[in-house]
Amino acid sequence: MDSETVIAASAVVIAVASLVVSVLQGRAARRHNRNSVRPLLVLQRTLVPGPVAGLRLTNSGLGPAVVTSTVVMVDGEKIGPWSKASADRIRTALGLWPTVMTFREPQYLATGYDEYLLRLSDYRRDHVEFTELINHRLYLEIRYESLYGGENFRAILTPGVL
């Protein structure tokens, strides 16, 4: 082999290595961009006696969440999506009329979203029906995605799991 062939072969190897590094770097950048706008929805029970108590939803992630679907069950019976009709059905059975925040699907929740989905003012320990509902009877599943879509993330409130 003469020196020209060695130089040409070395140039090809360097070009292929550069291409591989560029492809890997592009994939890493796309993965980073997706993670930099990933939402993280958290359902939290807040049942401390005081001015406000209930079921709170927070977007603790770095990007907005797109709620694609919801499922509500009470005592294992499917009620439907988390809508006004479903909330009214739950409130009527409760005997109390807590404030609700419902969704239309798709629903966009901004970064830093922090609202009560089910809220009772002037909560006291003797609000036993409300406490039982939140702690032991209510199942709520929220399916959501980032702006990129396709991830099928879920936030779930499971009965009896505190």
Number of domains: 2
Instruction: Determine the oligomeric state from the structure.
Output: single chain
Q: How many strand elements?
A: 9
Order of helices and strands: HEEEEHEEEHEE
Q: Can you tell me the residue ranges where pLDDT is under 50 for at least 5 consecutive residues? A: none
Q: How is the CATH topology of the largest domain named?
A: Immunoglobulin-like
Shape: rod-shaped
Q: Which architecture of the largest domain per CATH?
A: Sandwich
Binned strand content: 35-45%
What's the short story on this structure?
Helices cover 34% and strands 36% of the residues. The protein is an alpha+beta fold and 162 residues long.
Description of the structure:
With 162 residues, the chain is of the alpha+beta class. It folds into two domains: 36 residues; 120 residues, Immunoglobulin-like. Helices cover 34% and strands 36% of the residues. The chain is built from three helices and nine strands. The strands form two sheets. Strands 3, 4, 6, 8 and 9 form a five-stranded antiparallel sheet that branches. The longest helix has 34 residues. The radius of gyration is 25 Å and the shape is rod-shaped. The N and C termini lie far apart (73 Å).
List the helices and strands and how they pair.
Layout (H helix, E strand, L loop, with lengths): L2 H34 L4 E6 L3 E10 L5 E10 L2 E4 L3 H11 L4 E2 L6 E3 L4 E10 L4 H10 E8 L7 E5 L5
Antiparallel strand pairs: 1-2, 2-7, 3-4, 3-6, 3-8, 5-7, 8-9
Give structural attributes.
single chain; 162 residues; alpha+beta; Immunoglobulin-like; 2 domains; 5-stranded antiparallel β-sheet; 3 helices; 9 strands; rod-shaped
